[in-house]
């Protein structure tokens, strides 16, 4: 007489295998590419851009929009690390970078303007734009460091 197989261990093995597959499958998902930005618009091909507050929410270009931002002060990070830090911020889900513009850095003496190296805000803003990040600028002589 043939021995009857017990289906409980086989069912358990299939269930555990399925759970492990579901747990590790996202590891093999492709990562988002930060090199191509199809949503980027050229200033030459002007499309009406709009930002408004209506019905208790933000609207950007006619779509509901939520600002998910964090601070990255360009003058406190070496310029060669800006892209790395911005990509890390974007990977965390941020869509907006906030930064102070310390005017005493850009005009250390009356009439002497500095916009290179750590003070190259134009390069920082262009990099944010290239990466698809919005920027909220806080200009002024006062920088809250506390």
From TrEMBL:
<comment type="similarity">
    <text>Belongs to the glycosyl hydrolase 35 family.</text>
</comment>
<keyword id="KW-0326">Glycosidase</keyword>
<dbReference type="InterPro" id="IPR001944">
    <property type="entry name" value="Glycoside_Hdrlase_35"/>
</dbReference>
<protein>
    <recommendedName>
        <fullName>beta-galactosidase</fullName>
        <ecNumber>3.2.1.23</ecNumber>
    </recommendedName>
</protein>
<dbReference type="Pfam" id="PF01301">
    <property type="entry name" value="Glyco_hydro_35"/>
</dbReference>
<dbReference type="GO" id="GO:0005975">
    <property type="term" value="P:carbohydrate metabolic process"/>
</dbReference>
<dbReference type="GO" id="GO:0004565">
    <property type="term" value="F:beta-galactosidase activity"/>
</dbReference>
<keyword id="KW-0378">Hydrolase</keyword>
<dbReference type="InterPro" id="IPR017853">
    <property type="entry name" value="GH"/>
</dbReference>
<feature type="domain" description="Glycoside hydrolase 35 catalytic">
    <location>
        <begin position="58"/>
        <end position="145"/>
    </location>
</feature>
<dbReference type="InterPro" id="IPR031330">
    <property type="entry name" value="Gly_Hdrlase_35_cat"/>
</dbReference>
